Every structure is written in structure tokens, then in C-alpha cells.
Amino acid sequence: MLYSEKVMDHFEHPRNVGEIMDADAVGQVGNPRCGDIMKMYLKIEDGVIVDAKFKTFGCGSAIATSSMATELIRGKRVEEALSLTNAAVAEALDGLPAYKMHCSVLAEEAIKAALGDWYRRQGLPVPPECVIQKEDQTPGHTYE
Hints:
Order of helices and strands: HEEEHHHHE
Largest sheet: 4 strands, antiparallel
Number of helices: 5
Distance between the termini: 35 Å
């Protein structure tokens, strides 16, 4: 089987789809080459992510990784969410085909872009892992 049962479940029944109108943080990343765009919305209270929603335009793997990523960070402290890796997202989905791993990278980057937005809104120094440097960009990705 190409995709795990968890990937198929999160694709067919994605969790946390939508937008948070009064979000404390918003991050968007995209890969114009493959067409995947992820927008992550976070509600943060006392340093804890109390809600996370996403809007993703893309393939089934992009939707599944967005869904799983929001599940993994809900209820976590900002610092914990900042350490979430694309490998952890893929592992939580029981794996992704190698040619779809870029979707888990986008999910990680969307969370970090949103957290960078939260730090900026709080007037706090943005941790380096939130700042996506030109030389760190995956070819074809754009960042907001």
C-alpha cells in the first residue's frame, strides 16, 4: 500500500480544518512548483496552543500532514511546538512515500512561520528556527 491507514484517515477526515478569525498567529508557506500551499492559524493562551486550524491547497499528503501537525501541537507549549520536526509529523502518520516528504516539511514550516508571527506580535525576539533564511529555503518554496 502506498499510503498508511493514518495518512488516508487524515486525508479523508482531516482534523482542525478552517481558520481562526481572532488568531494570535498566522503563517503561510507554499511550493508553487507542486502547488501546495498551507496556512496555519494558532490561538495561544499563556504560552499554550489552545487551538490550531489550517487551510491547505494541495495533494492528499499535504492535507494529511497539515491535519496531523495541528493535532500534534494542540495543547503544547509554544517552545514544544517549535521543536516539532517534519520527521515527527511523517512518523505520526506511519510514514509517507519519499516523494511526498516535502509535504511534512511544509507542515513544519507552516507551524514555525505561525510561531514566528506570534513572537513578532508579542514584541519578543523571534527564535532562529522561526526565521526562514534565504539559504535554508527549499527550491521552489516561497514564504510569507
